[in-house]
Write a structure and sequence with these properties.
Helices cover about 25% and strands about 25% of the residues. It is α+β, with helices and mostly antiparallel strands and about 300 residues long. Belongs to the peptidase C69 family. Secernin subfamily.
C-alpha cells in the first residue's frame, strides 16, 4: 500500500475572493478494506510519539499548532492529508512508499507551518536533512492565498507555485517538472553530478528521477467557469465524478479563507468483523446499508453545509 490520491485545486477567479478549495480522493485498490481514520491533535498532543528527527526541527522553529489529519490506515503516526489552525492544508498526491514512512510523517510535521510558503520551506529543510535515499513523493500545499506543488527524491526537492485558476494533480508520479520556483541548493549541478541530468534543455525534475507523471490530467465533471461560483458543494461533485468505485477510499476537502476555514473528511470503517466477532454498531450499520441510505447521507451533508454557511 502506498500513499496516493488525485488532488483538485480551485482558486480565484473561480472561487470567491481570497478563497482556495483543495479536494482529494485517496486511491488504493489493494487497501479498500482497510479502516481509515481522522484524528485531531491539540498543541500539547501534536508531537506525541515521535520526539526525534524532524519533530525537533518543528520544536526549534516556533509555535506548535493544532492539527487534524486523515490517516490511510490505523497505527500510522502521520497521515496522507491534513490541515492546521493557520489555514494551511497539505495532501500527498503520490509516493513510492507506504504512508507510514517519510511522506506521512512530513504531513504531520509540516502541518505546523504558518503559511503555504512556510510549509514549502519546512518540507525542503526536512527533506534535505532527513530524506531517505529511496523515497520519492509529491505534495499539494495550500493556504488561502497560494498553492504549491512540492516533489522530492532522496534529499533533493523542487517546488512550483501554481498560478492556474484550477488544476488536477494525478496520483501517477512526481508533479513538479520544468517549472521550478524553489528547490534544493544547486539542484541542477547536483543532478548532473549524480548522472541524473545531462544539462541539456530545461531541467525536468520528475523525469530526472524517473518518476514523471505523463498523464494528461483533465478535470472531472463540470469545470470551474471563472465567475466565482465554484464552492464547497462544487468540489463534492468533482470528487464524486472522479472517484473510481474499485480503488476509491476516503476523501477530504479544505475550504481555505481569510476567516474561518472549514475541513471536510470522510473515513471508512473496517468492513471485516473484529477478532472476537463482536458486532459493533458501526459494523452492523455497514452490513445493513442500502442504496437509499446514500440519498439520506447527501441530505444530511446538504443540511451541514447550510448550517455552516449560516454560521460563517
Amino acid at each position: 500500500m502506498v500513499a496516493a490520491g488525485d488532488c483538485f485545486v480551485v482558486q480565484s477567479p473561480n472561487t470567491v475572493e481570497n478563497t482556495i478549495i483543495l479536494g482529494r480522493n485517496a486511491i488504493d485498490g489493494d487497501a479498500v478494506t482497510e479502516a481509515q481514520e481522522v484524528h485531531y491533535y491539540n498543541a500539547t498532543e501534536a508531537l506525541e510519539g515521535r520526539p526525534d528527527g524532524g519533530a525537533d526541527v518543528v520544536k526549534a522553529n516556533g509555535e506548535i499548532l493544532r492539527v487534524i489529519l486523515q490517516k490511510p490506515r490505523t497505527g500510522v503516526w502521520g497521515g496522507d492529508a491534513g490541515a492546521n489552525d493557520r489555514n494551511v492544508s497539505i495532501a500527498v498526491s503520490w509516493s513510492n512508499q507506504e504512508p507510514a514512512n517519510d511522506s506521512g510523517t512530513l504531513i504531520r510535521l509540516i502541518s505546523f507551518a504558518k503559511s503555504a510558503d512556510d510549509a514549502v520551506e519546512r518540507i525542503g529543510n526536512l527533506v534535505t536533512d532527513h530524506g531517505s535515499d529511496d523515497a520519492k513523493f509529491s505534495f499539494v500545499v495550500c493556504d488561502h492565498t497560494e498553492v504549491w506543488l512540492v516533489s522530492s527524491g532522496g534529499k533533493l526537492w523542487a517546488a512550483q507555485k501554481v498560478t492556474d485558476g484550477f488544476l488536477r494533480i494525478t496520483c501517477k508520479g512526481l508533479s513538479v517538472k520544468t517549472t521550478i520556483d524553489k528547490s534544493s541548493e544547486a539542484l541542477g549541478d547536483t543532478l548532473k553530478a549524480q548522472g541524473l541530468w545531462d544539462g541539456e534543455g530545461d531541467l525536468n525534475f520528475a523525469s530526472s528521477l524517473g518518476a514523471a507523471d505523463d498523464v494528461d490530467a483533465e478535470w472531472s465533471g463540470e469545470a470551474p467557469n471563472g465567475d466565482g461560483s465554484y464552492t464547497l458543494t462544487s468540489m463534492f461533485d468533482t470528487l464524486r465524478s472522479a472517484a473510481d468505485t474499485e480503488t476509491a477510499r476516503a476523501a477530504n476537502i479544505s475550504v481555505l479563507t481569510t476567516g474561518i476555514s472549514c475541513h471536510w473528511f470522510t473515513a471508512t470503517p473496517m468492513p471485516m468483523m473484529p477478532p472476537d466477532n463482536t458486532v459493533t454498531l458501526l459494523h452492523k450499520l455497514h452490513a445493513q446499508r442500502k442504496p437509499a441510505a446514500v440519498e439520506d447521507l447527501k441530505s444530511l451533508e446538504a443540511a451541514c453545509v447550510e448550517e455552516l454557511n449560516g454560521f460563517s
